[in-house]
Amino acid sequence: MESPFKADILKGKVALLTGGASGIGYEISLQLGQHGASIAVMGRRKHVIDSAVEVFQSQGIHAIGLEGDVRKRDDAARVLESTVKHFGRLDILVNAAAGNFLVPSEDLSPNGFRTVIDIDAVGTFTMCREALKYLKKGASGKDSSVGGTIINISATLHYTATWYQIHVSAAKAAVDSLTRSLALEWGTDYDIRVNGIAPGPIEDTAGFSKLLPQEILSKLKEQTLVSKVGQKWDIAMAALYLASNAGKYINGTTLVVDGGDWLSKPSH
Ligand code: HXC
């Protein structure tokens, strides 16, 4: 689908995306790149990163892949340092790395709970904290008038309660809370904007196929609620809006991009 934004709205900017080589993160990487940004993608699986970067580069996007796990502070620091070494600066951090599986609470071990909290919530905090020195105004390659921006990918699971998602719901609630806290502190001190995006059900993603297995999807189709299913493109357009100057007065919000889905959850 054609973008409604001008192709140069992120010209000269540098973005680092965790989970930027697959799913929603991939589409955000692609769209930021197609709108002028240079892209560094971080992920755990080398072959996944390599093939995404190959596609981005074939489209003329300046892109690099960096292996790392957001649960490891050293990985976070190394990947950020490599990004700035390669591209000279950092303007945009997108935290899209996430872990997810469906499991009834009574079958979830404390370590399973902790694993998802570690990836989604602690991982997001770690990346933000390690990125701070590069995002501040006046940091390497940046002028002293404007700070960088952070986008945390969240969810709507925790607005109500979602079956078999106790771990992810808790993790995303924490992500939303840290979006607000960092927006307050870093917006005031450094002019860094910190926002989130809460996607609804997005087709062709791991989250979608895990949370909406085929039998539930067919039921949804019968109820014609399938029109509420979004595309990765919808999330990437929201990211462009928040990352670009169009969003310069937006700080501390989590933008729900779900076609109104969470307002009207069907009972099934
Ligand atoms: C129950 C599970 C489990 C499962 C793992 N665990 N998978 N418990 N059911 N299916 C438990 C393990 O038993 C273990 O606890 C602990 O979690 C750690 O498991 P590991 O396999 O050692 O961890 P790791 O290899 O680090 O993998 C973590 C992972 C990750 C979270 C499972 O690999 C993963 O989820 N990858 C998929 C990424 C993904 O789907 N991303 C899209 C997210 S979508 P014990 O006690 O046994 O040691 C999303 C959006 C949600 O977030 C909203 C959509 C609308």
Protein described:
By secondary structure, the protein is an alpha/beta fold. It has eight helices and seven strands, in the order βαβαβαβαβαβαααβ. The protein has helices spanning 23-34, 46-58, 73-87, 110-135, 166-190, 206-211, 214-222, 232-243; strands at 14-18, 38-43, 63-67, 92-95, 149-153, 193-199, 254-257. The protein has a seven-stranded parallel beta sheet, with helices on both faces. Strand 4 (92-95), helix 4 (110-135) and strand 5 form a beta-alpha-beta unit. Helix 1 crosses helix 8, helix 3 runs parallel beside helix 4 and helix 4 packs parallel to helix 5 (166-190). It starts with 13 loop residues before the first strand and ends in an 11-residue tail after the last strand. The model has no long low-confidence stretch (mean pLDDT 94). Residues 23, 98-101, 103, 108-109, 111-112, 115-116, 155, 157, 168, 201, 206-207, 210-211 line the site of hexanoyl-coenzyme A (HXC).
